[in-house]
Amino acid sequence: METFLLVLLAIALAVIVVLLLRLETFKARSAEQATQRALAQLERWRQNDLQAVRTEQTNLARAESAVQFQQWKADYEKTIREDAIKKSAGVTLGKVTEHFVPYLPEFKFDPRTPASLAAPSTSSSSRPHRRQRRFDSLPRDGFAHLCPKRQDFLCN
Question: How many independent structural domains does the chain possess?
């Protein structure tokens, strides 16, 4: 019976050793899995946080660029308007000059004959007016035959 108890004790010790080894293996595997889960959770948190920071920076950059664009647009619109006013004033001055020059004493021709070169008149059928046809028929090498007295100023 003593041998039987010794064998039983040896079997019990072997079972305890196997169970202890399995416990250690289980602990190691559990620790590894816990570490992996923690690292995965940390990585998800980092990605979400990084995405939130990127989104915030993108929104701030867009808002800032929109403000800068509106400022540029306002400044440039002012420049465009000033340029348009200058051009309009030049055109107006040209038209006024064009209408008054024929009445100056230096103008040697009948003031009723000149036609506007800037805005030729046409009829509703889009055919050139009589004065415009006369202007179009002039030679392209100069107007010397029209103003022999003032070739230095009017004709060249």
Answer: 1
In order along its 156 residues, the chain shows pLDDT tens digits of: 888 889 999 999 999 999 999 999 999 999 999 999 999 999 999 999 999 999 999 999 999 999 999 999 988 998 899 999 999 999 999 888 888 888 888 877 776 665 555 555 555 556 666 666 665 665 554 554 555 444 444 443
Q: Length of the chain, please?
A: 156
Q: What is the pTM of this model?
A: 0.38
Domain membership of residue 149 (yes or no) is no
Closest CA to 67 of 26, 91, 9, 75: 75
Domain ranges, residue 92: 1-96
Using a CB cutoff of 8 Å and minimum separation of 24, what contacts does 142-150 make?
146/109, 147/108, 147/109, 149/108, 150/106, 150/108
Q: Which residues contact 117 (CB under 8 A, 6 or more apart)?
A: 98, 135
Give domain status of residue 20, yes or no. yes
Between the CA of residue 28 and those of 23, 25, 31, 36, 131, what are the distances in Å? 9, 5, 5, 12, 107
